[in-house]
Write a structure and sequence with these properties.
Length: 289
């Protein structure tokens, strides 16, 4: 790890984030697959507050890109204590890699770590778009050139439908993000992310009860889902959810998450059960915000 690079970041960041930043860099950089790490966003720009995310660009040697993605959840949970598997970020721009969001406890609070994994062969393009600050550089040259296999892996991952468990993780991550928007008074972003939460809940119902649906988005939900008692109950949950305040406050967010998890218990109880310990811890940290 290059100390002087970290010194540049430390000069513009708050102690809590910097401590987690150091820890995360140490964990991620130990992988031989990693060529370099860069920090972007408010931490790099010097505009961070106590709620700011840690936004990493992780440049991975092209031949190791697939294997690195397969171990990233294990790495983040065992080494950094991430509560949940990484959410495959659908908000981040498509820049030639894959984005993941993790919720990590640190010093009594839950922090968001965004990892944008990119093959080294595409790193220059990503850096040109993000103005990221380097914090780690491995010795030696990068290994391999961009291949069709790496392209296929990225595109197929982006295009693959989410599983029920992945949608539950998305809902919980969005809840954490909305909580920060409320604390900052960011009404427009809170509105957008609440709509994304509603959409994830709708997708959860369709994944559970109409996995072969030929219809896009919100179309034909009553016809597809409402034909069974459990489907009608799920649609009633969804009605309650979308009838909440479009710009939420803390109470509205708690109500929305409660409804969504009740919906999950009804539609995909096994997926909720698999995440039960994480959900319990999540509620604890949400109450501390």
């Amino acid at each position: 790890m290059s100390t002087h690079l970290l010194d540049d970041v430390a000069a513009v960041n708050l102690p809590r984030q910097f401590g987690l930043l150091q820890k995360a860099i140490g964990v991620i950089s130990r992988s031989q697959a990693v060529h370099s790490l860069h920090v972007r966003g408010s931490l790099a720009a010097g505009t961070a507050d106590r709620l700011s995310d840690l936004d990493f660009i992780v440049a991975v040697h092209d031949p190791s890109f697939g294997p690195f993605l397969r171990i990233i959840d294990t790495l983040m949970s065992t080494e950094l204590g991430a509560l949940l598997p990484g959410w495959r970020d659908t908000i981040v721009a498509r820049m030639g890699g894959l984005g993941y969001v993790f919720l990590v406890p640190h010093e009594g609070a839950l922090h968001q770590i965004d990892l944008y994994a990119v093959p080294v062969s595409r790193l220059d393009t990503v850096l040109a778009r993000t103005k990221a600050m380097p914090v780690y550089q491995a010795e030696g040259e990068h290994r391999g050139r961009n291949s069709q296999q790496v392209d296929w892996l990225i595109n197929s991952t982006l295009d693959r439908p989410c599983t029920a468990q992945e949608l539950l993780v998305e809902i919980l991550v969005l809840g954490h993000m909305i909580d920060k928007r409320i604390a900052r008074g960011q009404r427009y972003v809170a509105y957008a992310e609440m709509f994304a939460l509603h959409t994830a809940a709708k997708n959860l119902i369709k994944t559970a009860l109409a996995p072969g649906s030929a219809f896009y988005g919100w179309y034909h939900l009553v016809e597809e889902i409402g034909a069974t008692p459990i489907g009608r109950q799920c649609l009633a949950d969804l009605d309650r959810l979308i009838s909440g305040q479009p710009v939420p406050d803390a109470y509205d967010l708690t109500a929305a998450l409660t409804i969504t998890l009740e919906l999950g218990e009804r539609a995909v109880p096994e997926a909720v059960a698999a995440l039960r310990p994480a959900i319990t811890a999540y509620w604890h940290y949400l109450e501390q915000m």
